[in-house]
Request: fold
Amino acid sequence: MAAADSLFVRFGPLAELAPYHLMLFGTLLGTELYQSFVMTKVCYDALTMSAFTSLQKRVFPVYFRLQSILFLLTAATHPPYGPLSLVRSPGDLIPLAFGGALAALNLIIYGPRTQEMMVERIHQGKLALIHDEGDRR
Reply:
């Protein structure tokens, strides 16, 4: 670890990964809690269903990308030596790998499926509206 120690001597506190790791993990946790428990609830209560669906359709892709990026950065800044520290500490690696796998599933599988379902739901609503108007005539 002499290279890491010399890096600290050269750059001082800027070479320490712990503050960056803590900041990134806090951002990740805060973003997930805000999106899941605040924004979704407030928007669902305040907006019409079509406006809520349109908002979520635009928010989900950005949220899932941000979640994945923050997980990667959190893993890359794991103290004291980044990803090398994770290899040496399975107790830290397992929860981070689990969270990262879920973030990847959101980005690759669930995000696109959610988008498709939202579009399908909008089309079903339009078809039901047209059908209802036809019955009234």
